[in-house]
Specification:
The complex is a heterotetramer, with two copies of chain A (154 residues) and two copies of chain B (421 residues).
Chain A: H1 2-8, H2 11-18, E1 31-36, E2 43-53, E3 56-67, H3 70-83, H4 88-102, H5 112-115, H6 128-153
Antiparallel strand pairs in A: 1-2, 2-3
Helix pairs in contact in A: 2-3, 3-6, 4-6
Chain B: H1 8-13, E1 29-30, H2 41-54, H3 64-84, E2 92-95, H4 98-108, E3 122-126, H5 135-144, E4 147-153, E5 159-160, H6 164-167, E6 172-178, H7 192-199, E7 203-207, E8 230-234, E9 245-249, H8 251-256, E10 267-270, E11 275-277, H9 291-307, H10 309-328, E12 333-336, E13 347-352, H11 357-366, E14 369-370, E15 372-374, H12 379-384, E16 390-394, H13 401-420
Parallel strand pairs in B: 1-14, 3-4, 3-6, 6-7, 7-8
Antiparallel strand pairs in B: 2-9, 4-5, 8-9, 10-11, 12-13, 13-16, 15-16
Helix pairs in contact in B: 2-9, 3-9, 4-5, 9-10, 10-13, 11-13
The chains are: A alpha+beta (154), B alpha/beta (421).
The complex binds pyridoxal-5'-phosphate (2 copies).
Chain lengths: 154, 421, 421, 154
């Protein structure tokens, strides 16, 4: 019983939950989005700040304000660690990798070099009801990023 | 324990799913009956017998199976009418769920007819409704230019009647409210509100989705001025199948409302230029109705009547009292809604300091205890109490005190796992 | 006989009801499958297993049973998507029947949105539609001031395309038609009409209620300009249960339509003042969906796919050809609709000189042969042929040539009983 | 098989079907109604002509035009035989009696003194799908009569 639970609630997840990184809403930002998990009401407001780097856009900052369960809060914190400071291309491929892990029904082997603390969510993929929790912030980030790029191009 | 259903262990044997265990062998403790109830064997058997031996389309078929299927289907309607004490069986419209029944009312009021709702009219709902009794009225009022107003909730989780005179005026065309809250458990004054609303000429609709499973209902016995004009409930919460709901409405209201969905079965004569419609209830049952579902629902309501709705109610009250006591013994736990079992239904929503409802539900689930976490389709009521979501346990006629003990132990464990762990 | 399903007698064993007999011991000859189909054991078993072991509400439940029920329900949606070759599973909305699916389309077009239908706009249907594809459009056009027009029927029972240029103009907002007629058996040109209608910018909706049981459908394989914008069918005619229907519509159409029914499951956030909605398909699935029905429908469509829809189609054609031949050997019998099985579905409506359809059906029923008598929810098509009602036989994958023989013998007997007797 | 059928299709019924009485629409009349059996499309247009008798209204004429099956056609013919010329009160009680017979699931013993040829419909009560056929004309007559009385009183 506890072992099943422990595979979900990894130490890393509980740590991020108790001490989330990059919390709060900060300026400057190009896009702000509000996402909701309609099943449970968990919510996140998230801002993205991109700057131009030598080889394309770089994720300068991601700031947020959110209410949610341990999984969604920890996932938000881990996500900011993983994308802030990265070239956008690289951040987007981390996003892809995380998505693949979550949709893998617990059968995908996570790559620690890419996902770092994110590998702790491998266990979540076995709990279909919680996958949405783990993805809430990632989806919000993707959405805000897309909006930022569209605003630039348009 | 005094007040439980007699022979509870025998009753539990009627429900095959209650023998299920979780992957690691814990027995299932199902405390999510306000979400959907489990089904007794007799309901399943009635559906199987129908599908294996009597399946045909109804009304329009003249052959042996058609006659049997029609009798079975209309027999389901008779059983619904009997269960509600409906003045007439023709006042019973079978829908797909309670939500459709509420939308049927809201939707038909948008179109020309004596009850049409328009600019300047007021529709009144309450802050403790299920989303299915809020959103249809938002759509109606937004689309017609009418105004939506609502009763608030007191700090104790009761309907706040202090503004009743402002809410019920001659502008008020519709008052719609839940009999029993699916989140707070509150039992609303469903005699007083219809009486007051009828005085100003408003129609009154009662959402009995949580009441029908738990309380005896006898429409014919209600004084006319206190009887709602329409009442809805849903099959899957009264030990029946999904795919079927009930709209009861008084005959002349059904006659006065314009059609909702158009199609087969609801017509009298169809010409390309225009059609005339059948009389109620058929006018509101376009297309092939939920036939096997009506058979299942009929068996379900007979099952409940055989147990006796008074006994079911007493059982629910007893378990609810025991649960309220047990829950409040957990440190850091706060019950949302009335804490006295006497005037309350069996859904108990609560918060536990420092642990998110998802995480509570998850830990409980790992011990085989099934509860619901989230806003339970009652987000405004959560907002009223300043919480974003809650955990909800809900018992039913098959719930035992031991299952409540398992919940309380699970909550103690959750605390230790999360806040102290 | 060439073209029948291989192992037809084994297939028949899958359908428990086919072993039924009438009170006097005649075997059941069920020739009313266009009305509703019979159910194979695997469909019934899937539903029983769900109710006995996995029943819970979906989406909102986080516990073991909730996860299992959600997986079973969404698995049903996946199977529907696969059966239709839908470009995306999120384009599959589960309704209560085909009629609701058609009303969903007609109803949402009444309200503000890019596709809103209003005064001056034209909606085009056909004279051979089931009432469920006529009445919703009458309601829409009457309520919005738009105009309803229709394709007629030729003397041979085909869609009369001679006025197509008048019907499809830049005023035309919607063209809705049946793929296969439930009365005449006609198979309509469902590639040509969408292509022509799309040229004038109209939306095209196809009623596949009779097509889905009989023909392979592959939406993704259709050229985009010939693919309808939406297509509906109903569970109970594809060996699935009642209480479930399917609306497939292209993703951006679903996104553009305003909500239909409001309530639980279809929302994103609810505040008393206003709500925001979930994305498709959930936006159109208010309230508890048909869960056990989706499980049953999934099993049904898998059963059909395992037999192979090409084989089912070949079987239907073969039986239909044999039936057309047998029926036309009966003196005084006139088939309504195409008499060549090649381009036709399995419903065959006919008249018999001097005997009213009710009386025909009654005499046949006394011999265990189940057919339908009346207007089969296609009164305008009957009027077109100057008849008030007809008798209809309709075969399906379990129909044998011997059953057709029993029908033909029964008709001979009917003649002698009535006209000569 | 035939015996079951024969209990439905009594000789009397088939006779009325082949040679219906009082057919056609006639003047004068006070009310005309149009009824439909939505299941099968059977239709009837029916007119009622009441006159004042010594002890209340008398059914002077009932005329009709209809399309339908043997049961509905025969029932219309028998109905006109039973009500035409009768005081309205008496005609209404015959109507009641026929209704009771039809709704009796084949368990009501018909009274030949009241129902005359109508007793032939006893067998129909065992065929639920056909009861509506047998009642179509009776319901239309009742409706037209009610309309006539309301127009008089109103
Ligand atoms: C062509 C056609 N369209 C629509 C329908 C309506 O289906 P349902 O009654 O299941 O809504 C039917 C069957 O009755 C049909 O044959
Ligand atoms: C109070 C109340 N009203 C309405 C509903 C909606 O019922 P359904 O989802 O079956 O339409 C529910 C249950 O979900 C409920 O608890």
């Amino acid at each position: 019983m506890s072992s099943e639970l422990d595979s979900l609630y990894q130490e890393i997840i509980l740590d991020h939950y108790k001490n989330p990184h990059h919390q709060g809403l900060r300026d400057p930002f190009e896009a702000e989005v509000h996402h909701v998990n309609p099943t449970c009401g968990d919510e996140i407001t998230l801002r993205v700040h991109l700057v131009d780097g030598a080889e394309g856009p770089v994720v300068q900052d991601v700031s947020y304000d959110s209410v949610g369960c341990s999984i969604s809060q920890a996932s938000t914190s881990v996500m900011t660690d993983l994308v802030i400071g990265k070239p956008l291309d690289e951040a987007l491929s981390v996003h892809e990798e995380f998505l693949t892990l979550m949709q893998g029904k617990g059968k995908v082997e996570p790559d620690e070099d890419v996902l770092e603390d994110g590998i702790a969510f491998a266990g979540v993929a076995k709990f279909p009801a919680r996958i949405k929790c783990a993805l809430l912030a990632w989806m919000a980030w993707k959405d805000a990023t897309t909006q930022t790029l569209e605003a630039r191009d348009g | 324990m005094e007040g439980l259903l007699p022979q509870l262990e025998v009753v539990r044997k009627d429900f095959p799913i209650l023998t299920r265990t979780t992957p690691d062998g814990s027995p299932l403790v199902y405390l999510d009956s306000a979400n959907t109830s489990q089904k007794p064997q007799c309901v399943i058997d009635a559906m199987v017998d129908h599908l294996e031996r009597h399946n045909a389309n109804v009304a329009r078929a003249m052959h042996l199976l058609g006659a049997e299927a029609t009798e079975a289907f209309e027999g389901g309607r008779d059983k619904v009418a009997a269960f509600l004490g409906a003045p007439s069986r023709d006042e019973v419209v079978l829908t797909k769920n309670a939500s459709e029944a509420l939308n049927l009312l809201a939707n038909t009021l948008a179109w020309p007819g004596v009850h049409q709702v328009g600019a300047g009219d007021v529709v009144v709902t309450t802050e403790m409704e299920h989303h299915s009794n809020i959103v249809p009225w938002q759509l109606l009022t937004q689309r017609t230019g009418a105004e939506l107003q609502w009763f608030g909730i007191t700090d104790d989780g009761l309907l706040d009647l202090s503004r009743i005179d402002e809410l019920l005026t001659e502008r008020t065309k519709v008052v719609t409210l839940t009999w029993v809250s699916n989140m707070l458990g509150t039992v609303n004054p469903v005699a007083e509100i219809p009486r007051r609303a009828h005085e100003v000429g408003a129609l009154v609709f009662v959402d009995a989705s949580q009441a029908a499973p738990q309380l005896p209902i006898d429409l014919a016995a209600m004084p006319v001025e206190e009887r709602p004009d329409a009442l809805v409930f849903t099959g899957h919460k009264t030990v029946g199948p999904t795919g079927i709901g009930v709209l009861w409405a008084r005959a002349d209201l059904l006659e006065a409302l314009p059609p909702f969905l158009g199609g087969g079965e609801m017509i009298e004569t169809v010409r390309m230029e225009r059609s005339t419609y059948a009389s109620a209830p058929y006018k509101f049952e376009a297309g092939t109705p939920p036939i096997v579902e009506a058979v299942g629902l009929g068996a379900a309501l007979e099952y409940l009547s055989d147990l006796g709705m008074e006994s079911v109610e007493r059982h629910e009250r007893t378990i609810t009292a025991y649960a309220l006591e047990g829950l409040q013994s957990v440190p850091g736990l706060r019950v949302l809604g009335p804490t006295d079992a006497a005037g309350r239904g069996g859904a108990i929503a609560f918060e536990l300091d420092g642990v998110h409802p998802h995480d509570i539900a998850q830990v409980l689930d790992s011990r085989g205890v099934a509860v619901r976490a989230g806003h339970h389709c009652a987000r405004p009521a959560h907002e009223r109490f300043g919480v974003q979501s809650s955990t909800r346990m809900s018992s039913y006629l098959y719930t035992t005190p031991a299952e409540i003990d398992a919940l309380v132990e699970g909550l103690e464990y959750t605390r230790s796992y999360f806040t102290l762990g």
